[in-house]
Amino acid sequence: MAQIKSYRDLNVYQTAMECAVLIHELTKTFPPEEKYSLVDQIRRSSRSVCANLAEAWRKRRYPKMFVSTLNIAEGEAEETRVWLEFCQRFKYLSPHQVNELDDKYDKILAQLVRMASNPQQWTIKK
Known about the structure:
It is a single chain. This protein is mainly α. The protein has a single domain (8-118), classed as 23S rRNA-intervening sequence (de novo design (two linked rop proteins)). Helices cover 71% and strands 0% of the residues. The chain is built from four helices and no strands. It has helices at residues 11-26, 35-58, 63-89, 95-117. Helix 1 packs antiparallel against helix 4 (95-117) and helix 3 packs antiparallel against helix 4.
């Protein structure tokens, strides 16, 4: 296993970034009336997963803050899944597109839960 020097080295960050970029591309085709509602919401929540992972990484000296920020990332990932369901129900995305992203968010959430459940593995020892 390669040494992790940055949050950018984390598989969970890489997957979350991949999903956020894909969501950005997919939502370019949505109807104009969704620009400031569904498009804005799903783009923000998907990007927030990445941003909160980066923030959590910088808080590794403080285990409780590290876990708290990971929990925020977890909430943002789950919120993204809700917006994806709306995308499918409104027929803006196919079931296949949504299922692929939903599977990736399942993995993201599992990784976030594992990290938060074992913060000593990630935090900086004093």
